[in-house]
Structures are given as structure tokens and as C-alpha cells.
Amino acid sequence: MVHINPLNVLFALGLTVVHATQFWHNTGTKAGWDTFTHEHKGTVDEVTDQVYKGPTALRMTQIHDPGYNGRYHSEAVKYNVYRKGDTGFYGFAFRLQDGWQFNPAQGYNIAQFIADFSDLKCGEDYMPSTMVWIDGDQLGTRVKYGNVCPTNQQKIKEFKKLKTVTAGVWHRVEIQASWKSDNTGFFKLWYDGEKVVEAYNLPTTVGDGRYFQFRVGLYANAWHDHGYEGTQGTRQVWYDQIAAGSAFKDADPSGWVASTSGMRFQPSSEDL
């Protein structure tokens, strides 16, 4: 059998090869992040007890306190990941603790893009655009668009009940987004390699052009917004292989392989 190198075919046709570019990645360490949020009794720890690949992962913990009225973020934060007009891929692996209690009335955010709009003085401080969450045992996500101010001009399109999430095992999420404030954007999300959202010709971000952060971590938003329910007051989620880039494999945790210089990506014809 004769093996044909697809690169040679492209060169023979006079076409340009565009290589994927990984903008940023983290291999489950506390190094390399811009900051962390760990409100009240929450923590962000670098651990070795559960990992997706490599020697370490990040473990996010939040603990419910009936005497506390604030929010419950435990997140790793990377600044300046996207702004309006960008297109990119974003991915991470996550694992819910063994015995995670899935309560239909409780939602937990596991990743979000967010920016500080406090300078606009319209009632918003930090405002998230796209979020990824678990509602009961169902994966969900959304896009937000419209004007930041006034807040009643913010619009949301949700994608709910995408897949059932299981506890005690590692899962992968990859997002591709064309961040537009008009109807020319698109948004895709993969869960464990299956594309569960593919939406075109829609706005995917707000009109303001400032940079958004990318955060992965446990945000027990239901405890603040709807009230605590259930009997599992301590929640933990592990994260590993978090990245952003210009191609799917740049952000795909399963595409990373070990090398003597650390972590690299397995090349394939999909990169052409």
C-alpha cells in the first residue's frame, strides 16, 4: 500500500498549510494562572490523588455554610482569553467527586467566561457571558448577547439537558466559538468527544469589546441564588488539561501526549 502524505498533496496543489496554534494551556497546576477565587471556606488545591494526565490536577472545593450569605466560587482564572471578533477553541477535563449527590433542584457551574463591567455603573460588577453547568445530572451551557447596560437588554440563549453527567470519572468538554454580537456568530460544544451543541447564525457575546476571562472551577451558584438543598454540603470537582487554541486538538485534553519536554499534542491530518 502506498502512503500519501496529505501535506505533499497540499503543496502540489499550491495551497498554504495553516498550522494550529495553542494560545495557552495548563496541565493541572497552580502555576500559570493569573489569579484564583476561593470565597468563604472554598479552596483551590494542586493535588495528586486524582489526575486525568500527568502528575497533578486542580481540586476545587466549596463548603456550604448556613450562616453565610455570599457567593461560592472556587476557580482558577486566566485573563484576556477572548473578546468580540475572536474565534477559538477552549477545553478542559473535569471529574466530580465520588458519590456526588445529583439534586434536581441544584445547579453547579463548572466553567465560565466573565468580564469586569463595574466601570459602567449600571448594576453589574463581574458579568459572565458563556457558562457551562450541571443542573441536576444534566450538562448545560449558554451564550449571552445584547447590551450590558441597561441590564434588561442582556439576552440569553440556553442549551439544556445536553448529556447526563456521571460522578467519579473524568469527562472532557471542548468549546468552539465565533464571538460575535450580531447574527454571524456560531457556538459548538463537545462532551466526551460527542458534539452536543452546534448553532450557527446567532450572536454569542455582548456588544462591549473588552476582554473576557476564562475560569474553570466549582461555582455553587444555586446555594446563593436559589437556596441550599440536599445533604451534601461539601462539593469537590477536579480539573486537568485546560487549554485554548485555534484548532480542536489545541483544546482537547485527550490529544495531549507526554514528551521529554513536558506535554505536546499528537499531530494528525485534522491539523491541515
Structural commentary:
By secondary structure, the chain is mainly β. The protein has a single domain, classed as Jelly Rolls (Sandwich). It is built from 3 helices and 17 strands. Strands 1, 3, 4, 6, 11, 12, 13 and 15 form an 8-stranded antiparallel β-sheet that branches. Strand 12 and strand 13 (194-202) form a beta hairpin. The longest helix has 7 residues, at 6-12.
Beta-strand percent range: over 45%
Tally of DSSP helical segments: 3
What distance lies between the first and last C-alpha atoms, to the nearest angstrom?
A: 23 Å
**Relative helix content:** under 10%
CATH topology: Jelly Rolls
What string, H for helix and E for strand, traces the elements in order?
HEEEEEEEEEEEEEEHEHEE
Number of strands: 17
Regions with pLDDT < 50 over 5+ consecutive residues?
Answer: 1-18, 257-272
Content-based structural category: mainly beta
Largest sheet: 8 strands, antiparallel
Number of domains: 1
The average pLDDT is 88
The dominant shape is globular
User: What's the CATH first level?
Assistant: Mainly Beta
